[in-house]
Specification:
The chain has five helices and no strands. It has 122 residues and is mainly alpha-helical. The N and C termini lie far apart (61 Å). The mean pLDDT is 87.
Amino acid sequence: MRFRPAALLLLATLALPNPVLAIDPPYQPQMERLAEILGSLYFLNPLCSEATSDWRQELADLVTLDQPDEDRQQRLYGAFNGGYQAFSRLYRSCTPSAEEALTRLLVEAETTARDIHTRFAE
């Protein structure tokens, strides 16, 4: 008889509806990588050149256009912050390797954005 309350609790728990989890769109990994790149550019661009783009605003615009749910939005902003922090730990001034990273990141950002648009835009 001792196990009866536990069994009832287990049955009650199983009877509760499971929360519905959103399914990520197929381009979510590319969007997270793009957000990470934008965070890196947000740190490196003013370090090595006169900032011509506000990469944080670019991400905000992408998020607004994509209209992700709260979970996806937080992952995108987290990726942006991760990209920023990764380069902020490595560089304190503009070095040749920072300039090279900046150049490569700009190319990768353009390629990734174009790929997302080409493959998934309506």
